[in-house]
């Protein structure tokens, strides 16, 4: 018997924190659309970008290194969909980082704020959809398809990375 936390519950707890950050990002964008660009809204966007670029990146790297290789052995087609989805998700995040950097560097032009809002909304949508897909499809599939030994190995690997 292992004493490691359940790996799916651990990943879901990280998703919960990620959802909160995505809500903060969405609220900041809504504020910009409603009252215009403010330092407070931009600060919230920067905080969300920093969190996604660090904590969520580590989370997704952990899944890529430990969860998906196990799943790929059993369900290849879902892996291909998830890979494509992740590429789009991280591309939208890179675009958001560019918008944030442009504003920080004073490179503001007619479309800068509009691009910031557009890319932030895309990031929120991609990441929320990805989290939902993992929780509704991928995680239940993992619990069904992995052997008890594979699940225990996954728990150990994730606990060691956490």
Structural class: mainly alpha
SSE pattern, N- to C-terminal: HHHHH
Query: Count the strands?
Result: 0
Low-pLDDT runs: none
User: What's the CATH superfamily, by name?
Assistant: nmb1532 protein domain like
How would you characterize this protein structure?
The chain is an all-alpha fold and 162 residues long. The chain has a single domain (7-161), classed as Four Helix Bundle (Hemerythrin (Met), subunit A), CATH 1.20.120. Helix content is 86%, strand content 0%. The chain has helices at 7-35, 39-72, 76-104, 112-145, 148-161. α1 (7-35) packs antiparallel against α2 (39-72) and α2 (39-72) packs antiparallel against α5. It starts with 6 loop residues before the first helix and ends with a helix. The mean pLDDT is 91.
Spell out the key features of this protein:
5 helices, 86% helix, single chain, 162 residues, Four Helix Bundle (Hemerythrin (Met), subunit A), mainly alpha
Q: What order do the helices and strands come in, and which of them pair?
A:
Elements: H1 7-35, H2 39-72, H3 76-104, H4 112-145, H5 148-161
Helix pairs in contact: 1-2, 1-4, 2-3, 2-4, 2-5, 3-4
């Amino acid at each position: 018997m292992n004493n490691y936390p359940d790996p799916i519950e651990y990943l879901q707890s990280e998703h919960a924190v990620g959802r909160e950050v995505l809500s903060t990002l969405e609220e900041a964008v809504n504020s910009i659309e409603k009252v215009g660009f403010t330092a407070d809204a931009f600060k919230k966007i920067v905080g969300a970008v920093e969190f996604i670029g660090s904590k969520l990146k580590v989370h997704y790297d952990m899944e890529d290194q430990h969860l998906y290789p196990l799943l790929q052995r059993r369900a290849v087609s879902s892996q291909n969909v998830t890979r494509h989805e992740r590429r789009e998700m991280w591309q939208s995040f890179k675009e958001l980082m560019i918008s944030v950097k442009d504003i920080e560097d004073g490179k503001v032009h007619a479309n800068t704020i509009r691009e910031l809002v557009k890319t932030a909304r895309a990031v929120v949508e991609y990441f929320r959809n990805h989290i939902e897909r993992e929780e509704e499809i991928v995680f239940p599939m993992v619990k069904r398809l992995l052997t008890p030994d594979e699940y225990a190995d996954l728990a150990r690997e994730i606990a060691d990375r956490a």
